[in-house]
C-alpha cells in the first residue's frame, strides 16, 4: 500500500503543479573550462539604473576569465548590439586582441543576429546562460557586485560623480589579489605587479625580453594550476548543496518551475508552482535541456537549467488529470527576458 500511495502521488498532476520541492536544487556544478592565457575567454554584463554622470548611466563590465582582470566601460545608455560590438572593439579588441569565447546572459544585445554575425566574423564562440540561471555568468555578476559596493562607499555624498571614480575602482580591483589564482589580475596578465610607490620600481625591472617571457609563462602556469585546484574545490563545495539531476531524454515530458514566469492568476500565493508538462526536444548538456514551448511562450528562451525542471511520472494506478497552463501576462513579458 505504501508503494502504491507513493506512485500515485508521484504521478498526480495536481500534486506536481501545486507542491513546492524541498529537495536541494538539481544539477551538479559544471565549471567552465580554464583558459590557457589571459583575455582569450571573457564574460560581459551591464550595470544599469545608475544616476546620470557626465552623460553616462550604464557600465559595461568585462571580465577576463583567466586573470580575473576587469574593465568597467561607462556608456550613455543600454547599448544596442551594434553599439556593444563597437565598445568591445574599442576597449577589448584594441588592447588584448580578439577573444576566443564570450560568455553573457540572454539580453537583447547578445541574442541578436548582428551580435552572432559579428562574433562569427571574428572567429569568436558565443556562450549564453540558460534561462533564469544567472550563475552561468557568475564571474561578471560578482564583479558587478564589487563595483556597486565600492561606488556606494565612494560617492555616498555625491551620487552623480560615480563616472569620475570608475577608473580608480578598476585600477584598485585589478591590483588586489584574487582567491582563484592567488595573484592580482595585473600580475597574472602582465607577469608583474605594477608598483604603487617609487621605491618598489626596482622589483619590476626586467633585464631582457627573454626574462620577461619566462616570467610570464611561469606566472600563467602557476595561475592555471591554481584555477584548476580552486575549480575542483568549488565544485565539491557547491555540489554539497545540490542533488544529482534525473537523466532526461529527448521526447520525455517535464514540469517547468513557474518561479520566474509571471502568470495570469487571481492570487500569486495560490498560483501553481510548476506548469506544463512540456516535451524535451534536445539535451544541451548534463544540466541544460531545450523544451518545446507553446506559442504563448514564444518570447521565452526554451533552454532551461535542470534545477527548474522535474520529470513527469506515470502510474497505472491513476490517470493524469489535464492541467490548464496559464499564459504570461503581456505587460510582464519584458521582465521575463
Automatic annotation (TrEMBL):
It comes from Cyprinus carpio carpio. This is Integrase catalytic domain-containing protein. It comes from the Eukaryota. GO terms for biological process: DNA integration. Pfam families: rve, SH3_Tf2-1. GO terms for molecular function: nucleic acid binding. InterPro entries: Integrase_cat-core, Retrovirus_Pol_polyprotein, RNaseH-like_sf, RNaseH_sf, SH3_Tf2-1. Residues 34-193 form the Integrase catalytic domain.
